Amino acid sequence: MKREIRSDVKWGATFCLVIVLLFYSISNSAESVDSQFDKGDIEISISSDSIQVHLDKGNISKSFTFSSDSFVRTSDGIMVRGELFIEEGRIIVDGIGLSEEELRRLKINHDQETVPTWKTDDMSPRQYRRKRLVTAYGDRGSDFVSFRSIMIDSMTSIQGDIVSISGDIDISGEVFGDVVSVFGDVHLRDGAYIHGDAAAPFGQVYKDPLAKLRGKTVERTDIRAKKHDADFGLSLRFNRVEGLALGSRLIYVDSEKRYPGMEIDGSYAFSLKRWQYRLGIRHRVGKKVGPYFDLAMFQAAETSDRWLLSETDNSLKAFFFSEDAYDYYWSRGFSGEAGIFCGKRLETGFLLNAMRISNLKKNTKDGVFGGKDFRQNWATVLPDSADLLAGAGDLKEYGLTATYDSRDDKRLPGRGLFSNLQLLKTADSDSADFDYSLARLEIKGYLPVARNQTVMVRLRAGHSDDRLPLFRRFFLGGIGSLRGYDYKEFEGNRYALFNADYIWLFHESDFGAGVFFDAGKAAFGKNDFESKDIKSDIGISFLVTDVLRIDLAQRLDDLGKSPVASFRFDLLF
User: Fold this and answer.
1) What percent of the chain has pLDDT over 90?
2) Contact residues for 203 (Cβ-Cβ < 8 A; gap 6+)
3) 320-353 pLDDT per residue, tens
4) How far is the C-alpha of 291 from the C-alpha of 272, rounded, in Å?
5) Residues 51-95: pLDDT tens digits?
6) By three-state DSSP, how is residue 528 classified?
7) pLDDT (tens digit, 9 = 90+) per residue, 486-510?
8) DSSP classification of residue 529
9) Domain spans of the chain?
10) Pairing with 251, which of 138, 277, 412, 486 sits 20 to 30 Å away (CA)?
11) Is 435 exposed, middle or buried (0-12, 13-18, 19+ CB in 10 A)?
């Protein structure tokens, strides 16, 4: 039997490797045609304090990041520290040039960091919101892309987008797409009709009284960060323990980082019949290297399963289909982290948690459509088991954490590496309700292998020699882990999980597909872990970028079982 399982694993890995090599060879063949004409892509990402220009040409990739006030206007265009030039119809990044005629695709994004996310058990990084200003194609007749100034007279109609990198845009005619001038101004004359947006991230949008603009305007004042920013919003979620939870959040952020950021989050869970809150303070001292701290007081229904599925996806599944992927526990107390950051990529610190843990039960029967009842909280554990009864008590733990993050985009990365290591140990082990030590590791890598094609790999592992409480235990199976298996089918005090995805977009569209391979195992104790076989699955994916992903996974240890289908809107990996 073991030999058959190992054979299935090898067969699955070989299948995925063949698929990857096949599509990679096809993509290289396709790109070799483009390379004859030296075609290339440019992506410009604009934030409140920096600009990143990424150039792909043939097999060469160049990236250059500079502050928003460091570029110099020349008589012919733009220059930045002698490393980036935009002039005479050509862009040069670190010695690699691309002309207007060679431009295949130009993508311009506006990146905004959302409110700081205070760290939780899922080791989630801070989130960014990406606003795509425009994606234009130099080799598509409907778009008008130039590195110089552009003028559209009243007799001209443009069916696509108009984009200028370093020049001004003057329009008297009709444009059915967006109008974007990155480093210049946009002038909309009387009689102009713009069906999309008008953006000048480092300039202004001038609109005459008789000009029509159906979309929005984005100007330098919209990009530039406010020195002090307070944000208030409402939150809504639904699950089988809280029922409907309605709340609000107030956040204060000092963009110059002279004062700490603050968060006040409150909500009421109607089925749980409890108030919940979170009060947090976060601060970084310095710009490149310096100390930081995160402090929070809280009282809430918590879960350790956010790495499997986003809260938005879980609420939608619970509300419409009576499927809740989270298991919950009540937590009230304090958490803190303090350490040193080195630039934007490296952060190391000391952790301290002190909280009272209580068990929770299901309080909601089903979702809006009924049909089936919600499973019980911690349904994979027997209701009268010692593990469930031992899940309550006072917890005091401390530890170390280290994070490295070089991803180009924190929410939807296309390249780079993220890694996090945590070492935790309980205090007062002789008299406390919990006694354990554990280590947790996560590594995620993103590698573009060709245009619109990316390989993503993830390794998660955890280890402890102690009997872990349920909220610290490791579970595998189902969406977010081993996608071809049942929900939380495997558990233990140690585990290893490997995921590999190869995804691609169909020709210059937002629709794509992919193949993936999952492998992992979880067990209690060294001997049990070594004796158990690795569980694995393979599958295919269909996706709409930034919006939806559908996975169909087949487990390899029992090919007689039907494939498992799952979908999600927020892509955590």
Assistant:
1) 49
2) 168, 181, 183, 184, 185, 186, 219, 220
3) 999 999 999 999 999 999 999 998 889 999 999 9
4) 39
5) 888 888 877 778 788 777 777 777 777 788 777 888 777 888 888
6) helix
7) 999 999 999 999 999 999 988 767 7
8) H
9) 39-113, 144-223, 437-572
10) 412
11) middle
Q: Region of 256 please: left (phi>0), alpha (psi -120 to 50) or beta.
A: alpha
Question: Which tokens in the block code for residue 527?
Answer: 């001997």
- Non-local (6+) Cβ contacts of 191 within 8 A are 154, 172, 173, 210, 211
Handedness of CA 359, 364, 368, 371 (dihedral sign): positive
| Closest alpha carbon to 339 in 298, 290, 281, 378 | 290
Return the structure tokens found at 304.
């350790």
Give the closest residue to 148 by CA, choosing from 170, 178, 119, 129: 170
Place of tokens 């919600």: 374
C-alpha dihedral sign at 351, 352, 357, 360: negative
Residue 28: what residue type? N
Rounded to whole angstroms, the Cα distance separating 460 from 12 reads 20
Q: How large is the greatest C-alpha to C-alpha distance in the chain, in angstroms?
A: 84
- Determine the straight-line distance between the first and last CA of the chain, rounded to whole angstroms: 33
Sequence-distant (≥ 6) Cβ neighbours of residue 235 within 8 angstroms? 245, 246, 247, 248, 249, 265, 267
Distances (CA, A) of 568 to 315, 325, 399, 541: 11, 12, 33, 11
Beta carbons of 212 and 196 less than 8 angstroms apart: no
How many CB atoms are closer than 10 A to CB 546? 14
Which residues share a beta bridge with 46? 51, 110
- Distance CA(230)–CA(75), nearest Å, equals 41
At the top level of CATH, the class of 437-572 is mainly beta
133-154 exposure pattern, b = at least 16 Cβ within 10 A, e = fewer: bbbbbbeeeebbbbbbebebee
Q: What is the DSSP string of 3-48?
A: HHHHHHHHHHHHHHHHHHHHHHHHHHHHHHHHHTTT-EEEEEEE-S
- Residue 564 amino acid letter: V
Query: pTM of the prediction?
Result: 0.72
Rounded CA-CA distance 169/418 in Å is: 40
The side-by-side arrangement of strands in the sheet containing 150-152 is: 150-152, 169-171, 186-188, 205-207
Phi, psi of 314 (to 5 degrees): -65, -40
Residue 87: half-sphere exposure toward Cβ, Cα within 13 Å: 14
What is the Cα 536 distance to its own chain's centre? 25
Within 10 angstroms of residue 495's Cβ, the number of other Cβ atoms is 22
